[in-house]
Amino acid sequence: MEDYRRIADRLAEEIYSGRLKAGERLPPQRVFARRRRIAGSTAGRVYGELVRRGLVVGEVGRGTYVRASPVPSGRSLTEATPGVSVNLELNYPSVEGQSELLAAGLAPLLRPDVLGEATRTVPAAGTAAAREAAAGLLGGSGWRPRPDQLLFAGNARQAVAGVLASLVRPGGRIGVEALTYPLVKEIAARIGCPLVPLATDEEGVRPDAVAAAHRAAPLSALYVQPTLHNPTSVTAGDARKRELAAVVRDVDLPVVEDRIWSFLHEEGVPFAAYAPERVHVVDGLSKRVAPGLTVGFLVVPEGRSGAVAGALRSGGWTAGGFALEAGTRWIRDGTVERLVARKRADAARRQRVVAELLGAFTVRADPHAYHAWWELPAPWRADTFTAAAAARGIAVTPGSAFAVGPQGAPDAVRLGLASVPVPVLGQALRTLRDVVRGAP
After folding, report:
1. Which of 344, 42, 60 is nearest to 197 (CA)?
2. Are 384 and 68 in contact (CB under 8 A)?
3. Mapping DSSP to helix (H, G, I), strand (E, B) and coil, where does residue 151 land?
4. What are the pLDDT digits (tens) for 403-430?
5. Which domains does the chain have, with CATH numbers?
6. In this model, does residue 225 exceed pLDDT 70?
7. Statement: residue 355 has pLDDT above 70
8. CA 144 remoteness from chain centre
9. Strand 56-59's sheet: what is its strand order?
């Protein structure tokens, strides 16, 4: 029997050569199997291999299509895309006066005596001053971590990698929202752990979905974004958090709560407050302050510090001394608080632009968030719209970047609102609006 990879190679060559064109639908698997005189299971593996290579996309109930554009990796969400003039994939907020505020806090660090101390290596537990400052920054709304629960990574992504590596052995299953942060998909692939997509609703992941997935085959950990979920902006209410806490206690499941965007949402108690003995909180300074000089925060349950610190050390993910000292000073002198206030106002202003220009479409967004989830009208598909936007110099992120598993990629795009000036954002949204009103 012919190896399925060789058949996939030939189809890939047809795609690269243009004989199979972008947007073209492949025949149903049973038809493909009959034409090629191969088993149906082999046809399924061929299609799965093409999906894995990012050459086609399978859409439930609609078929399998040749991609109009490649699936962006997590890297594309953190680095500039060549040839793009307006990047709505990047999402790092910067506000007027930010550099001046940061410079004032850095000035004392440039004294030779202070600089020498700040450029030394630090352990995963950081310094006593950093732990006190971070505990104060992350606390509020009825929850405040103890300083001895704090660990530090180079950034929030490294914090996620460290805590997952400490919790899950290779092959262990990690439950995630059906749409999840793309870099979590990459982290899970690198540590050899399959992701299990969990059903969600208007308040995030459903507790019954967590319980059902765990009964089917035990989960090793749960990764969730209960506040301003990326990409949908959904925020769980207190009742939902209590229900979810009861489930994770009942099945003895450790949790990673990603709160990287939570600083924009002034209300609500972290999920960790409802299950502090099993929730690991990840946060950081990249969105609050700046992506180039940042620190990742980890709040770990009692008894977990040693294992998580060990994972951070082994991965080379501990925070740099200079960044940690700078971040500590910015927290203590009020710089971070002032930046947060300005960024909350800036996010609200940008959401008003989205509401004004895209109000006639199905756009899921929170007035506090720096991103929006645009569910495209038929007959547009996410990858063809992404390609059409790119042809006009605008980068957006297709729903497939967030979808877990090869099936069911939504015909939606995420718009990152933070990284371009407001007038440029407005013009880009007008252009995208004109695109979607035309034919694919």
Report:
1. 60
2. yes
3. strand
4. 997 556 789 999 999 999 999 999 999 9
5. 4-66 (1.10.10.10), 74-91+337-437 (3.90.1150.10), 98-333 (3.40.640.10)
6. yes
7. yes
8. 25
9. 25-26, 63-66, 56-59
